[in-house]
Amino acid sequence: MGDQRDIVLIGSDAGGTMTDMLVVDKAGEFIVGKASTTPRDQSIGFANSMIDAAEYWGMDWQKEAKNYLPGIAGIIYSGTSMLNTLLTRTGKKIGIILTKGFEDSLIHERGIGVHASYGYQDKIHPVSHIHNEPFVPKKLIRGVTERISMFGEAVVPLYQGEVREAVADLLDRGVEGIAVLFLWSYLNPQHEMMAAAIAREIMKERSQEVPLYLSCEIVPITRENSRLNALVLQAYGAEPAREQLFGIERMLHQDGYKHPLQVALADGGIANIRYPALFKACFSGPVGGILGAKYLSQEMDMPNLLCTDMGGTSFDLGLIMGGECSILREIELARTVLNIPTLVMDSIGAGCGMYLSIDPESKRVDIGPDSAGADPGPVCYMMGNETPTVMDCVLILGILNPDYYLGGKVEVDWDAAYKAIKEKCADPLGIDPYDFAEGVLDLINVRMREHIGTVLSVRGYSPADYYVIGYGGAGPTFLAGYTAGLPFKGVFTVPWAAAFSAFGCAAADYLHRYQKSTLVALPPGSDDGMKQFMAMTVSASWAELEEIAAREMEEEGFKREEISFKQVAYVRYSQQLEDVEVISPLPRLVTAQDMDKLIEAFEETYSRKYVHAAMFPEVGYQIFEIGLLATVSRPKPLLRKYPLEGKTPPGEAEKGTRQVYFGGEWRKANLYEMDLLRSGNEVEGLAVIEAPSTTMFVPLGKKVIVDEYKRCWLKEV
Amino acid sequence: MSKISYSKEVIRDLIEGKLPWSQTKSIISGYKDEDRFDKYVEVLQEKVAWQEKILLPLTHELYIVQKGSDRIVKCSCGQEFGDYRVNWKLNALIHVRESEEEVKELYPYPSAPDAEFCEIREFYCPGCGTQLWVETVPFGYPLVFDFLPDLDTFYAEWLKRPLPSQKEFTDLTCDFIAQNWAE
Ligand SMILES: [Zn+2]
Predict the structure, then answer these.
(1) Complex ipTM over 0.85
(2) What is the pLDDT of residue B3?
(3) Quick check: A433 and A388 in contact, CB under 8 A?
(4) Which of A87, A102, A120, A127 to mutate to test the interface with B (most CBs of B within 10 A)?
(5) What is the per-residue pLDDT for A163?
(6) Cα(B124) to centroid of ligand 1, in Å?
(7) In which residue ranges of chain A is pLDDT below 70?
(8) Fold held by A7-85+242-281
(9) Phi and psi at residue A515, in whole multiples of 5°?
(10) What letter does residue A709 receive in the DSSP assignment?
(11) Could you tell me the fold of the domain covering A510-632?
(12) Which residues of chain A neighbour B36 with C-beta distances below 8 Å?
């Protein structure tokens, strides 16, 4: 029997390669677990990762799970099984009924689809572009005559006979589900509803039943192409993923867990795994980190926080302003553009697993764009890859401990890494392998630093207004490098940085986001009558969404009075392409003055997002989309404060010294165990602070100060 | 610096479209192999029965070859189309589809080109009957001369081995028409 702990929350993030686990106890202490992701049955990876985590508290989870699970208040999972379903093309056999004339939409796809996910060089070389094979073949797509206009009027009636034929034919072909999408159905769902009724009738006649997916219910928002992709994702990929999630939930319930399993959504919300629009969970891992940072931002009074996440393949930035993060309404995933509201992230290819090569013409060092991932991994993994990666450089420079990689659970081969770097890169350039490796780190740091500079400066922000948090497996290792020279308010990481996305899932709100398209226009000089009419249009849509939200959340087991709503409108200056998400100052707009208040809130957000001089009230305003945030409070990890102790780390935290190549020469670096550092301790560079799942590098001239929350602040000496 | 080079087998599979897309993509996206052109031409040369040296492939079946001191266009079957600076289409068999019925034989609605406005010209080899090329142009538009390469510059400056006898780099199509078909 291990320590007696009151485990209250578990957050889990199943990435493409590793499943991270963050376990939180009542006192606010965390442990981190890791295990390989098991795509076929994700409950195995989940269980292994949990076993790994529990070991740090001396628990044998397999035996003791029953003692803890009944008392746990929440388990949140974010996984990649949906993405995996798309990548391996193993989804359901789906039929689609579309407005006649649009049957080839999936084949034509968005132009961006031919080069989505490519690196920059491939993007600009059309010879490498290729169309994607649609997830639904043409023979399972039927067009029927009908037309709803852009004002929501039925200008061509629905030809019901064609619907009958289409449904019967698709059923004959053995489809496992039928998706229906008619143009502009989010303004008038009448035709989709009629088609659904006909389909149900036919299924009844045939005593055969398959699920129906209506776009007016699942994705009732503008942008027809990405809307279709999202609907297909729900029908094709989300249901197999739901089966996986039920598998994990069953396993937990067997051992006494009392609540439904929850998933993180791309828009930053959390939902029960029975949530109808489950497709929104297909991209939750990467946003987990931003959610975690948002929580720290709110709890620790850092309203402006720049999130930096460095993993194996990419370097992702997220911005938290005034404690909130912004939303993007389309994302690119598995080479398709999907209508999924997602927390804004700016990513570049800069990861620890990236391949290194030398351009034979220019002798320039190229980093990426491809990455070795976890399989085959860097050269030092000895799993068949012979092309050096960034991580191999970190290893030979002495920054990584070859005997303590992932807590000593993964064996790495220093000699193999050195040999590959020497032969493939350093010798051809005629330079020393260590100088080469240090040069690579400089190069990738410059790339990330420039990315940070760009992301802030294009928005008109100054680093001086921001704190920076570094996380992800490689974040703490490169943090000092990629923030060097930028005048941030403060730069820090946390001991659980390597499972920060899992932490974010545990710290997120139970939140659903609803969107609805609308047509609201306020031309310049609109009178009060006009404003009032538009105010009521907006309010009616909010009321409609609140109704849907309350119904859905009641089905998920909440009482109506537990739900709190935030009303949102997407406002733009007339004819501008971009709109701004505005949280309404009032729950309902009733009078012309109420409408003015919403516009004021818009202009305030707009001038903060762009600049004051960009405001353009002379043209009037438009609202094409409104939204609703429905939240229920849920338990969150307690952020524990520790008493401050002396500057000198305790003896048990010291792990001796190692030679590290820095600034062109070998130097002695002090080694520490991160988990054993105490609040108040200071560690001066050159130093390496090791944790089982990550390594923090402290260069010469820098020091780390551990504060009362155990944040590790990186400061100048 | 080690030079990048793929085996002749890989280049042969690339030409024949037998490589999986992932491999084709990595060749396209990778650094250029320095000996690609020579291996490419070698593979092509092995596929034809005649001996004239291929200077440059033009289409799937047509090549510009060195014949004595001339450079001519030649089909893989052996049929010759004359000087490479004359549009080879003048010496091909041409089938024109100009009515809606003829167009519809090939293209279902709605993919068909508009037969009121343009015609489809199909070019066939008089030697083997292979379809060599297809073009869709407005009525009366001259035969398109798709590609007149500057061979001397290519060999001298890119491959660094000039061809034995220089030819003036100019389009001789009109001269050919004047000599053969003018009154
Ligand atoms: Zn021929």
Answers:
(1) no
(2) 62
(3) no
(4) A127
(5) 97
(6) 8
(7) 1-4, 285, 374
(8) Nucleotidyltransferase; domain 5 (3.30.420)
(9) -130, 155
(10) T
(11) Dna Ligase; domain 1 (3.30.1490)
(12) none
